[in-house]
Amino acid sequence: MSEANTPDAAALRKRLYWHSRRGMWELDLLLIPFLEHCYDQLGADDQAAYRALIEGEDQDLFAWLMQREEPEPPFRRIVALIQEHAENADNDPRRPV
């Protein structure tokens, strides 16, 4: 069984999914597709940064992801990766825009 298919990995994925669901729909539209399409391909440092990011406050995440404020240094790279994924028109064929 591969590491991605272990019970611990499945539990982590479910936790990440539910923590990626936020109180703001705009954040859901950015975080959940990034989790589904990119998280598994990230390096360990970027995965850790994503896990730390989603522990943050919605208003901080919104300001950073909408480029209204500069992200705190530990989150700059992961925020940039999420923004890059969101700006890629080919990232999801079901994308409404």
TrEMBL record:
Subcellular location(s) of the protein: Cytoplasm
Key words of the record: Chaperone, Cytoplasm
Main location: cytoplasm
InterPro entries named in the record: SDH, SDH_sf, SdhE_FAD_assembly_factor
PANTHER family reported in the protein's UniProt record: FAD ASSEMBLY FACTOR SDHE (PTHR39585:SF1)
Entry similarity comment: Belongs to the SdhE FAD assembly factor family.
Protein name: FAD assembly factor SdhE
